[in-house]
């Protein structure tokens, strides 16, 4: 004699009373969640891109600025090269 196999259970028979009360989201709710997730992702990627561009700009322009003034000769070097004429030297403390 062959043992009879029980019939397969339907999904409603497998779930608990708690799972039966949970409602599935509608297509409109799923679309809204998708749009919100997309907007958050785009904003995050935009902020990350701006941060990378700012870091690259600061790295390339580090310590470089241009002035249009004539470069002045170093005054202390000029004073050392002058011959002394027996004058008293002054020291500022």
Automatic annotation (TrEMBL):
Highest taxon above the source species: Eukaryota
Origin organism lineage: Eukaryota, Metazoa, Chordata, Craniata, Vertebrata
Recorded family membership: Belongs to the SMAGP family.
GO cellular component labels: cytoplasmic vesicle membrane; plasma membrane
Protein name (database record): Small cell adhesion glycoprotein
Record-annotated membrane-spanning stretches: 35-59
InterPro entries membership: SMAGP (IPR043243)
Cell location: Cell membrane; Cytoplasmic vesicle membrane
Keywords from the UniProt entry: Cell membrane, Cytoplasmic vesicle, Membrane, Transmembrane, Transmembrane helix
Organism: Platysternon megacephalum
Membrane protein topology class: Single-pass type III membrane protein
PANTHER family: SMALL CELL ADHESION GLYCOPROTEIN
First-listed, main subcellular location of the protein, grouped into a coarse class: membrane
């Amino acid at each position: 004699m062959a043992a009879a196999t029980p019939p397969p259970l339907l999904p409603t028979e497998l779930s608990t009373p708690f799972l039966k009360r949970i409602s599935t989201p509608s297509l409109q709710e799923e679309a809204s969640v998708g749009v919100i997730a997309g907007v958050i992702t785009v904003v995050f990627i935009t902020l990350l891109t701006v941060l990378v561009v700012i870091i690259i700009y600061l790295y390339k322009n580090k310590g470089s600025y241009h002035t249009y003034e004539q470069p002045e000769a170093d005054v202390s070097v000029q004073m050392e090269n002058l011959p002394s004429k027996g004058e008293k030297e002054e020291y500022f403390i």
